[in-house]
Amino acid sequence: MPKRILLLFALLIPFPDQAEAIHLSQETQACLSCHMSITPGIVSDWQKSRHAITLPEEAVKKPPLERRVSTQRIDDPLKGVAVGCYECHSRNPEAHRDNFEHFGFKINVIVSPKDCAVCHPVEEEQFRDSKKANAHGNLAKNPFFTMLLETITGVKIVDLAELSIALQKPSAFTKQETCYSCHGTEVQVKGTKELETKLGKIKIPDLANWPNQGVGRINPDGSRGACSSCHPRHSFSIEIARKPFTCAQCHLEPDVPAWNVYQESKHGNIFLSKQSEWNFQAVPWRLGQDFQAPTCATCHNSLITTAAGDPIAQRTHDFGARLWVRLFGLIYSHPQPQKGDTSIIKNKDGLPLPTTLLGDPAPDYLIGPEEQKKRQAVVKGLCNGCHNRDWIGNHFAKLDNTLKEVDQMTLAATKLLVRAWQNGIADTFNPFDETIEQRWIRQWLFLANSVKFASAMSGAPDYTSFKYGWWEMTGNLREMRDKVY
User: Fold this and answer.
1) Topology given in CATH for the domain delimited by 238-484
2) Cβ contact 268:262 at 8 Å
3) Of the candidates 13, 15, 312, 422, which lies 20 to 30 Å from 166 by C-alpha distance?
4) How many separate helices (H) and strands (E) can be counted in the chain?
């Protein structure tokens, strides 16, 4: 169907009463004229979004603390129209390998962070250098993690005659379903393919490693990340992004038990009990007025003010920017990396890890004491919105002590593993495939992390004691010792 005819057809289609008031572009109306019947769920989701009812040129006029866009000016063709289908799916076509001709329009399949940066440049810049945006490369470019991934997810073939187990590398689909589901895939354009639709046959890009909404996804325009990981299509809701259910898509037990710990904590109890009374749409987000207990977004990235509007913490889309210590020990807790790209890190043994196997950090790649102190002050400022200094000081003192003691338990497990290698009980060719090696992984990846997260989030004593915590760490250590001696 020619573009001119489609635009004319779009003008004849009845839209909801709000359509005229929100100034849709002719191109977006043309998109809707078909997609209202082909993908009605997407259209309905978008119609309820802020994008559908807001003109960007009006959004930039709001006071700084109330603004949801960070660009300073809105240029054509976004002037005078709401942010609709065409305004997002037509950006930067020269960079998009997934751009294709679609009923007279040039359309990108995937909306990338670079496209969102037209209105949200500061957010995109912050995110671009974060660990989340680099999540795919931090996994794919690190041979230590890649071997771990392939060992635990690959198909195992058992030879009953020799009582041996052979490992097959995981397929591309298996990788998409496991670690890269959260870390993000590299979406590649293989060519084009033809689909039969209600409107006849259409040709679209044939994408490999798709669909995927991993936070570090590599997009066909070369950008890293997926804003839709937290702000899902097509509502791109700030409410959804602020609720911990979104973080729970990836941050859950056994390796990153933040969501599970949060549910059992005092803060989580308040959220689960009172969330229906909170205002998750407000910008800025006013402590005590819009919400009464922190969610993940409160501590990690949201713009938080007092009820009177005085800033407590500035908005950031680098979710590690307020963090001074990295709990997710690789293999031990350590200062946060200086850069989001952790694949560049090398410890003094030459391994791509932020610490040695015995716990010595790689300081050239990690933030120093002054930066740690600065970041901790921001988080303490958030805590101080509800708690007094004595409460806060004792909480962080407990956390420091817990990290130290848990790392000692990991060190004990590492020393037992080294002895097993020395005694020939396990080989060093693959440090993840034998029973005692997997016990070692369990010690730092599951059990130690459980205690650390529970301590940091001020609650969930079951996670520090019996469920996955000290009880399990002690038992796991004894089983490792029994295999060595």
Assistant:
1) Hydroxylamine Oxidoreductase; Chain A, domain 2 (1.20.850)
2) yes
3) 422
4) 24, 11
Confidence of residue 161 (pLDDT cuts 50, 70, 90): confident
Q: What are the backbone angles phi and psi of residue 281, rounded to the nearest 5°? A: -100, -15
Domain boundaries, the chain: 1-89, 121-227, 238-484
d(CA 28, CA 83): 9
Q: What is d(CA 57, CA 69) in angstroms, rounded to the nearest whole number?
A: 10
Residue 463 near residue 406 (C-beta atoms within 8 A): no
Tokens of 333: 């807790």
> Which strand (E) or helix (H) includes residue 300?
helix 296-300
Alpha-carbon distance of 346 to 80, in angstroms, equals 51
pLDDT digits (tens, 9 = 90+) for 423-473: 999 999 999 999 999 999 999 999 999 999 999 998 788 999 998 899 999
CB contact at 8 A, 100 and 109: yes
Instruction: Tell me which residue of 135, 91, 132, 84 sits closest to 110, measured CA to CA.
Output: 91
The 3-class SS string of 342-354 reads: HHHCCCCCCCCCC
Which two structure tokens, joined as six digits, stand for 471? Answer: 């009880």
> Which amino acid is residue 111, in one-letter code?
V
Amino acid, single-letter form, for residue 370: E
